[in-house]
Specification:
This protein has 129 residues and is of the alpha+beta class. The chain has 4 helices and 6 strands, in the order ααββαββββα.
C-alpha cells in the first residue's frame, strides 16, 4: 500500500479503497469517494510532490467491537505510523511523522482513512495557509 504510494503508482494505491471511501485529515478536511482520493494524490504528485520516501513504519491491526467516540467504527482497523521524507517541486524538503488509521469493510477495502499530521510545516514549505 505505502510502497505503491511512494512509487507514485496512485492507480494501484487507489485499488485498496472502496468506491465510497472517506479520506479524512486531522485538520477536518476530507475527500469522499475512491476517485476523489486518486485524483487528489495524482494532482499532488503532478504539481506539488517531487519525491517521497516512507520509512520506520509500525503497523498495528485492531478490531473495534464497541466504538467509543470520534471517527472509530466497529470492525477491523489497521493503525500505522511512518516517517516521511519529502521533497517538493519548489525544492523545499521536510521530514516528519504521519499516523494513519485505516478501516476495512467486509470486502477488505479501505472505507475510511484518518490521517494525523501537523500541516503547519507543510504549508510553510509550500507557502500556503
Amino acid at each position: 500500500l505505502m510502497q505503491q504510494f511512494a512509487d507514485e503508482n496512485i492507480d494501484a494505491y487507489g485499488e485498496h479503497f472502496a468506491d465510497n471511501a472517506v479520506y479524512q485529515w486531522s485538520s477536518g478536511d476530507s475527500l469522499t469517494g475512491k476517485q476523489a482520493i486518486v485524483d487528489y494524490w495524482k494532482q499532488r504528485f503532478t504539481n506539488v510532490i517531487d519525491t517521497i520516501i516512507m520509512s520506520n513504519d509500525i503497523w498495528l491491526p485492531i478490531k473495534v467491537n464497541q466504538p467509543q467516540q470520534g471517527p472509530d467504527m466497529p470492525g477491523v482497523w489497521l493503525i500505522g505510523w511512518h516517517q516521511v521524507n519529502v521533497k517538493y517541486k519548489n525544492g523545499k524538503e521536510l521530514q516528519f511523522w504521519v499516523h494513519t488509521d485505516y478501516h476495512f469493510n467486509e470486502n477488505d477495502k479501505i472505507d475510511r482513512a484518518v490521517q494525523y499530521l501537523d500541516r503547519a510545516p507543510i504549508n510553510a514549505a509550500l507557502g500556503t495557509n
